[in-house]
Amino acid sequence: MKxxxxxxxxxxxxxxxxxxxxxxxxxxxxxxxxxxIASDGEEAWQLIQQEKPDILVTDCQxxxxxxxxxxxxxxxxxxxxxxxxxxxxxxxxxxxAEELASQWGVLGLIAKPFSxxxxxxxxxAALDSQTVPT
Amino acid sequence: MSNAKSNHLMPALAVTLSxxxxxxxxxxxxxxxxxxxxxxxxxxxxxxxxxxxxxxWRRRLQQSHDAxxxxxxxxxxxxxxxxxxxxxxSAVPPLDANHPLSEAAARARQSLAELCEKLQExxxxxxxxxxxxxxxxxxxxxxxxxxxxxxxPIMVVDQFDEIVLANPSAESLLxxxxxxxxxxxxxxxxxxxxxxxxxxxxxxxxxxxxxxDEIEVPTAxxxxxWYRVTAKKLxxxxxxxxxxxxxxxxxxxxxxxxxxxxxxxxxxxVSAVSHEMKTPLAGIKAYVELLxxxxxxxxxxxxxxxxxxxxxxxxxxxxxxxxxxxxxxEAGVVKVDKHARPLNEILExxxxxxxxxxxxxxxxxxxxxSKLYLGVLADRDMLLQAAINLLSNAIKYTPDKGQVTLRSRxxxxxxxxxxxxxxxxLSEEDAQRVFEKFxxxxxxxxxxxxxxxxxxxxxxxxxxxxGGTLSVTSELGKGSTFSVTLPGxxxxx
Lengths: 134, 493
Hints:
Chain A is an alpha/beta fold. Chain A has a single domain (10-64, 72-110), classed as Rossmann fold (3-Layer(aba) Sandwich). Helix content of chain A is 45%, strand content 19%. Chain A is built from six helices and five strands, in the order αβαβαβαβαβα. The longest helix of chain A has 15 residues, at 116-130. Chain A is globular and about 30 Å long. The interface between A and B is medium-sized, with 29 and 26 residues.
């Protein structure tokens, strides 16, 4: 556990499947992160405007504003352009991780069903790589 | 010496002798000038003899010329087209053997006979070629007619990559004109690069096997269509040797829009099934892992996790059951038990099934059923399922405290029931797609859980099993009405 850095990091989780959202929230919050949740892209965008997270994990298929729409909007704004994003998907083959990375700077595509443990490790690794050692 | 020559020498000999006598007489006159009258008489006799010889010689010469003239005229009258072997002997009798030109005339007649024979051979060859040409032209027209009647576009290019034939289907599809005076270059006329490449490489490669490729072809109306193109190299056998020479290629295009559409639908179906199954699975896996990692520190949390796992498993099971029901019905393996039944009975039962879920949302559920007997030839369980699905759908997408109305009535010889709600309504596009498997209106997904199979199942039951119709009218934000029309059955006694 990397307690020193995790307490300062804010993680935003976004998924319209509430049980999945709650499971991920439970795991990541317990690791000491400040976790916020949103049930669709629009709600996530509102939260980001209020308090910018250090990392976003969002589902792809959601009502109102889907995951890709949210990422596009993030990249259009200067203050959110560099926000690290992971995407969750239950889709089979429509999404291309390489294309998402090259075009939209998505760090990774996580397939459902996923392991909350591995999701936490992925988030930790991403945040650690961005933390400048003192 | 031959007789012919001796005949012509006789007059000449007489003239020569006469001349000799005259010379002799003239000489005597010089030597002896005394007997002059004798010499004059002798001279006269010589002159008469000479004149007679001249006349005879001229007559013989004239006869010879006449024979040659008649011979030449006979030769001129010979008709090469009527010529048959041996006929020239009767048409042109030979000159007299004593005639000085008889040998030359015989050679001329032989040459003419040979020329006639050759001319006749040429005539026969020309006739044969004419017949072959007519047959080839007829065959060409027949092939053109066959190609024109085919719906599949067909195109032929030569070894110089120019279009030499395109049937009307190909001209229409590719928007090309191969009959005009303009360029026929494949690359200039056809906009589809993949098709051009396939034909060009097929023409110029060594292998003669046909090649097949699925190509998206830009069509004349600006859209695109998928075609399976089979290209075959055309070769012709050399007349001089057994070697073959490149002669272009033929391409046959088969419209595979339906196949592509089926592939797309299958892919969408598999993707949708995958998505719908993975979602509850993701919940189950996540909470099982949390429990396994002993993350739930108190009994309440553990109980909460187990409840989520149970509800996600139930959701997964319901999805599988719905999928199987739909598959069974579509495959026709479900036994259909249709009898004449009162429609209102089935509808009242459906209202009873969905009433608790309506009450949970404080939705007013109105049953406005006809007082008339509405007989319908139906499988009770299936039609009940369809009515429940329509009512459940209406309740799901109607906000709290709204209203859902179930009506029934008789329309001519048919019976009709409709489910009207004051819900969120559908856009025009959503209304067209709402009966597709797994299609769920994105903006409304958060309102209720669903598999996207309820409405397709209802449509299948109404239309395929009962021969009725199921349609929807809707206004976004105001509500929807799903209408079912079924053939009426005679009233039960």
